[in-house]
Hints:
The protein has a single domain, classed as Orthogonal Bundle (Helix Hairpins), CATH 1.10.287. The termini are far apart. The protein has helices at 2-11, 35-47, 50-122, 128-197. It is mainly α. It is rod-shaped. 84% of the residues lie in helices and 0% in strands. Helix 3 runs antiparallel to helix 4 (128-197). Residues 1-34 are annotated as: Disordered.
Amino acid sequence: MRAKSSLKKRASIKSGVFSTGPGTIGPAISPEPDLRMSLRERTAESVLTPRQKSKITKEELKEGKRLSKIIQTEQKAERQALELTMKELAELTKLQKQAMKDESRAHTAHATTLKGFHKTELAYLAARAKYESALTDLKNAEEGLEQTRRHAEMVTDMVREKMREVEELRGMKRVDDRERAVKVTELRGKMTGTATNQ
């Protein structure tokens, strides 16, 4: 029982940098509309000289470029996180495949031992010592079979959980990529619009 919990813990199910979404895009980073800030901006804008406006616009353009690079850097990191999770899934499926082989071998060993046990049981009165030895072998084989079955079931559960995590991350990344593309397009649009106005 202890082996099951420690193996699951090492697999790091449902955790990591992007388990709750990216930090640079999404609804959580959008500030609430502030009417006072909008009014202050319009008031200040109306008294600025063209030269002052141009200077501020250039600074905002630089900030937009920097922010765009940061968003794209996070996109690469999120892609790497997904690749790592998929790699973990592949490793778990290898473990599952080995567990299936172990279970098959244990089942064969159990069947062979059981057959031997029945033969020995028929000759019980003539060979009591053999009977008791075979009975011990059978118990050991049954315990081995049960342990490998539990292990195989645990590994399959882990694969299922990891697959669910991969699907959640893929879905999240799908949305994030689209939102990121929109954000980058907006930022580039602002840059292009500013260049045209000048």
